[in-house]
Amino acid sequence: MSDNTRFEIRGGAAWITLNRPENRNALSAGLVNELYDHLGTAQVDPKVRCIVITGVGPAFCAGADLKSPPGEAIGGGRAIPYADVLTRILDSPQPVIAAVNGAAFAGGLGLVGAADIVLTNEAAQFSFPK
User: Fold this and answer.
1) Could you give phi then psi for residue 61, rounded to 5 degrees?
2) Average pLDDT over the chain, rounded to whole?
3) b/e burial code for range 56-93 (CB count within 10 A of at least 16 → b)
4) What is the pLDDT of residues 57-91, one digit of tens each?
5) Has this prediction a pTM greater than 0.85?
6) Where are the domains of the chain?
7) Per-residue confidence at 17, pLDDT binned at 50, 70, 90?
8) Which helix (H) or strand (E) holds 85?
9) Domain spanning 5-127 has what CATH number?
């Protein structure tokens, strides 16, 4: 794993933090792969009672990283389709909480829509492109 995300279990919650603040936590192939893997890890851990997804910096997630090459993860591995991440969230045996700390645009709003519970702060913004 790289530093696109952080994963930790605190109490009964698995925290998945999108960690690319320099590009507003945009969804690169590497970030999507890590998010998918962390969700899978949390979902089979009997200590995890809920999963929280949040972001570092002023944005929750700006959507797709348009500078990231599609279809290939860092290191040449296969990129997990974004839709598979959404399915993993929707099918999660534990409730998934989106803790929206800023902008949730396009694909970031997809993560929010797939979550069971959404918590926001006053900086939260939601948008799909035209």
Assistant:
1) -165, 125
2) 93
3) bbebbbbbbbeebeeeebbeeeebbebeebbebbeebe
4) 999 999 999 887 666 555 556 678 999 999 999 99
5) yes
6) 5-127
7) very high
8) helix 82-90
9) 3.90.226.10
